[in-house]
Design brief:
By secondary structure, this protein is an alpha/beta fold. The chain has helices at 2-23, 35-41, 70-84, 95-104, 120-127, 198-211, 213-224, 233-242, 253-261, 291-302, 304-312, 341-359, and strands spanning 61-67, 87-93, 113-115, 131-132, 154-166, 189-191, 228-229, 247-252, 266-269, 277-285, 316-317. Pfam families: SBP_bac_6. Residues 22-35 have a biased composition (Polar residues). It comes from Evansella caseinilytica.
């Protein structure tokens, strides 16, 4: 009997040692040869990173749903794949398209990481318990208000909205939103469709947040002066470049800077009364399979390398220590409207319905 007890004790000790060894082992994809890689490959916050405990296994391919620009997304993914050896499967679309796809896949979620061009949907996803928090080591280096304090999402870049105009058709650009009521712009005005553009949706609600009824009065007057929907941000800007419209209000700045650099007759001014600066949130879905890889991607887009790629795309970097592109207006030169993201999250839907009824 004593011999049997000894055998059983030996087996238990052996199983315990084996389990500890497996728990502390590291896969080849997590190993690193340089300090920079180590920072990406070993997320500082392990909460939620143990896929085995969650009953999930890394699939070998990180799935990312991202809003434009496509060129920026591809460069970030290319750099991430080269840095980590992790393969990425990307779906790129507008914020509206991504949200629609996520809703359609609600019962069978596929994405690991989501990147949007509008902050309120990320806030809503957090409230619904659909985001897995992750504290990146870069969080303390980001602009205040650009990320969730509980680390549910990170605005890794931002775009400012302005008055995009054709330099061949407009000699003196409008200085503020109300200047678009001038006769010279009648029938030559557009705004990105807020059902397709998250940034335009944010602006429409933010302007009402600041101006109240006076904001609705401006929208009605702009409609009377020929304001029309221009589709998503790209086709809206294309209408200015082609001369179909003279001005697009609430156009995203980075697209204008890029087009201007390519020799197109377009430029942008930021209204004197203020505009919106929209952090572009990236977050990990609570349903993600590839949690560790997803955390590595968040770290990468916030890293020195990732933020330089953001700056080269004419977007505003999230890091306070990374300078924006020399050809674009710095954050300090852009006046913001007085708005609250909580107000936008709560009221944008009803404001959007009223706006669409007005301009359609």
């Amino acid at each position: 009997m004593k011999q049997l007890k000894s055998v059983i004790l030996f087996i238990v000790l052996l199983m315990t040692a084996s389990a500890c060894s497996n728990a502390n082992s590291t896969t080849g994809s997590e190993q690193s040869e340089t300090p920079g890689d180590q920072e990406l490959n070993e997320p500082a916050n392990k909460e939620g990173a143990d896929n085995e405990e969650e009953g999930r296994e890394e699939t070998g391919k990180l799935v990312i749903y991202t809003s434009g620009s496509k060129d920026l997304a591809e460069k970030l993914i290319e750099g991430f794949e080269e840095k980590t050896g992790i393969n990425v499967d990307m779906f790129e679309g507008t914020t509206g398209q991504i949200l629609g796809r996520l809703e359609a896949e609600e019962n069978n979620p596929l994405a690991d990481v989501v990147v949007l061009a509008s902050l309120p949907p990320a806030m809503e996803y957090k409230e619904k318990g659909l985001i897995l928090p992750y504290e990146s080591p870069y969080a303390s280096q980001l602009h205040d208000g650009w990320y969730d304090e509980a680390y549910y999402y990170y605005g890794f870049s931002a775009s400012a909205l302005g008055l995009s105009y054709n330099t061949k058709l407009v000699d003196t650009p409008p200085a503020d939103w109300a200047d678009l009521l001038d006769e010279q712009y009648k029938g030559l005005l557009a705004i990105p469709d807020p059902t397709e553009s998250g940034t335009a949706r944010d602006f429409i609600a933010a302007y009402i947040n600041q101006e109240g009824e006076a904001g609705w009065e401006l929208y009605r007057d702009l409609k009377a002066n020929g304001l029309k929907l221009g589709g998503a941000n790209n086709p809206a800007l294309a209408s200015v470049i082609s001369g179909t419209n003279s001005v697009v209000m609430a156009g995203v700045d980075y697209m204008v800077y890029s087009s201007k650099e390519n020799g197109e007759p377009v430029d942008i001014v930021f209204p004197e009364s203020g505009t919106t600066i929209t952090p572009r949130p990236a977050f990990i879905l609570e349903s993600a399979n590839n949690i560790t890889s997803a955390q590595q991607y968040i770290d990468y887009i916030l890293s020195d390398e990732g933020q330089q790629i953001v700056a080269e795309a004419y977007l505003l970097p999230a890091r306070t220590d990374i300078e924006p592109h020399e050809s674009r207006a710095p954050l300090s030169d852009i006046k913001e409207l007085n708005y609250d993201w909580g107000f936008l999250e709560e009221n944008t839907s009803s404001i959007l319905d009223e706006f669409m009824n007005l301009v359609r």
